[in-house]
Amino acid sequence: MTNKITRLCKLMLIPVLVVSLTACGTTASKGDKIGSVKDKSNKRIVKNIKKEQSKHKKSKPRKKKAKRSKKKKFNFQGDANHPLVKKSAGRLLYRKKNLRPKKRDKVKYVDYYEIFLKKGEKQPKTGRYADITKDKKVRWDKGYKSKTFFDITGLEDLTLNGKKFKFTGKFADLGGKFAIFDKVDVTKTRKEDFHLNIVDRKTGYVLNDNIGIDINGENPYLFLCLLDKKNKCLVNVDIDKSNGVLDSFYTGFTLDGFTLFDIRLKGMGVGQTFNEIYKVLGKPCSVLSRDDGSKYVFYKYKNIDAEITVMFISSSTKGILFTKAYPFKNNVVTGVSVYYDKKETVNEKGKTCENKVK
Prior knowledge:
This protein is an alpha+beta fold. It folds into two domains: 75-104 and 170-244, no CATH class; 110-165 and 264-358, no CATH class. The protein is 15% helix and 25% strand. It is built from four helices and 17 strands. The strands form three sheets. Strands 1, 2, 5, 6, 7, 8, 9, 10, 12, 13, 14 and 17 form a twelve-stranded mixed beta sheet that branches. A three-stranded antiparallel beta sheet has the order 4-3-11, with no helix packed on it. A hairpin with a 2-residue loop joins strand 15 (318-321) and strand 16 (324-327). It is extended and about 110 Å long.
């Protein structure tokens, strides 16, 4: 009985072994014994197959580490001890260099086809381009002067590149990164500083004289251009040499194209016409029309501290569009200047123009 049970157990083990070896990729012959040399070699083969299979398994791709962009180091040569830049403690350098701003074919805030005359197109004189307002109160081709002005609160909607802009006669008004140029002591400007060039060693911005300075006239001034790192004009500035006050900012058309910065009052600026500005801002305080066809419209704002004038300009010269010169359309604003004058003060609220800014 015992022998029968033992034989039965042996017979039951054979199919189990066959199944297990078949699952591992090999089979056992009838003569193979468990624990024999041949059985061990089979196990070794299975082990090697598994190793090979694990090698060929697709591994998950590793995420590439983002390369940190290295800040560009500027290596400018110049004089850090020049009287004009000495107050900047070495951050500004004075260079005697005639740097011409790069040409600018296109800027976002200008609709070129609205302000330039196309080839063969006649100068428009009606509608938004008309020389007289619909109510017949103002003629843009005939100038007039008045001593009236708006209340200073009307400048709450003055913007620079779409952001609210308060003009106090400083470079810092343009943004913190330009504040270092307030350290330039223009009262130290000399005759030989014609075509001066002042560079910020930290940002690469340049205060450049490519237009000219008049330091010997009745009202000595410096008319300079603020350039970005690529030598493109951001904004033109006018500085009074006698007191170092930044008198004005100008944005719009220049001989090298349009400035990159854009000043607007209640959304009115380069690209609008005088008639459109009249609808929004009301009757201007003064209008100047010159024989060459250029026109200037003034809106003056005043309080007991300062007088600020916003001037809209319609140029008579040809503008550059894609390297070619084209005339501007009639009464289209081609530039905007904001003037700051702290010398003229009043002791009372004063008069206002006929149409107050709402």
